[in-house]
């Protein structure tokens, strides 16, 4: 099966899955009309048992509560980042998070945020003899990446050849490549990378960051067909959380962040 056909089939399967929670042609301007797709990316979004949780999920629930409504657990779907990203691109009333807002993505979505700011780092297996003094050094290494990761474009811009970027949607497969020596470095979010190191190797310290590529703001990315007033309601709700005192001299937003620190 060629890659274009595989992508089309993947989007069709995701569309069938998401449509199971929809109500046909009814697209009322309500929070319940949306489906939220995401990946395992702690502490922002991840599963505990069958429940989707994390900073970004708690913020969504707080926005809904402030608006006098709720977001059902059934409205959340966890899948690979590539599938989640493509679903929000192509399926109406779909929101993908947590998403880096890049110039080349700007017109593909409607944006709400920022949710938080994260560091993208280059991990190596501990102990490591790899030293990265600057971005130019990265072109000398094979680097594991997740498809559609925001860092891919930046890595190419600083001179990393396409053939040095080894892509897999499963972080555990990339970590195995690090262990086996088929991959030198892994470019990923620092907090999420430590989570997968512990999950896969038994310790968050099994991998060591050897270089910080950049810091990025994370957003909710709404399908372009989402009504503007619904997107605006989420942005106004998020802005309100950042200002609203929770009774302990900090904002509701800050209190949510503190749960995961």
From TrEMBL:
Solute-binding protein family 3/N-terminal domain span: 37-250
SUPFAM superfamilies: Periplasmic binding protein-like II
Protein name as catalogued: Solute-binding protein family 3/N-terminal domain-containing protein
Species in which this protein is naturally found: Methanofollis fontis
């Amino acid at each position: 099966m060629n890659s274009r056909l595989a992508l089309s089939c993947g989007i069709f399967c995701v569309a069938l899955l998401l449509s199971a929670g929809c109500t046909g042609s009814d697209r009322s301007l309500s929070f319940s009309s949306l489906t939220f797709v995401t990946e395992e990316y702690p502490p922002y979004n991840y599963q505990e048992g069958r429940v989707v949780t994390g900073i970004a999920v708690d913020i969504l629930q707080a926005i809904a509560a402030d608006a006098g409504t709720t977001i059902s657990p059934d409205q959340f779907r966890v899948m690979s980042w590539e599938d989640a990203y493509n679903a929000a691109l192509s399926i109406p009333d779909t929101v993908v998070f947590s998403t880096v807002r890049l110039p080349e993505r700007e017109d593909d979505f409607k944006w709400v945020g920022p949710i938080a700011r994260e560091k993208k780092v280059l991990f190596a297996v501990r102990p490591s003899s790899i030293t990265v003094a600057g971005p130019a050094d990265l072109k000398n290494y094979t680097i594991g990446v997740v498809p559609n990761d925001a860092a891919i474009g930046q890595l190419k811009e600083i001179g990393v050849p396409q053939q040095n970027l080894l892509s897999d949607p499963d972080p555990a497969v990339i970590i195995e490549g690090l262990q086996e020596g088929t991959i030198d470095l892994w470019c990923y979010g620092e907090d999420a990378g430590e989570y997968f190191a512990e999950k896969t190797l038994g310790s968050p310290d099994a991998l060591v960051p050897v270089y910080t590529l950049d810091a990025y703001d994370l957003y909710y990315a709404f399908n372009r067909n989402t009504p503007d007033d619904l997107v605006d309601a989420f942005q106004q709700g998020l802005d309100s959380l950042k200002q609203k005192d929770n009774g302990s001299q900090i904002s509701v937003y800050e209190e949510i962040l503190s749960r995961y620190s």
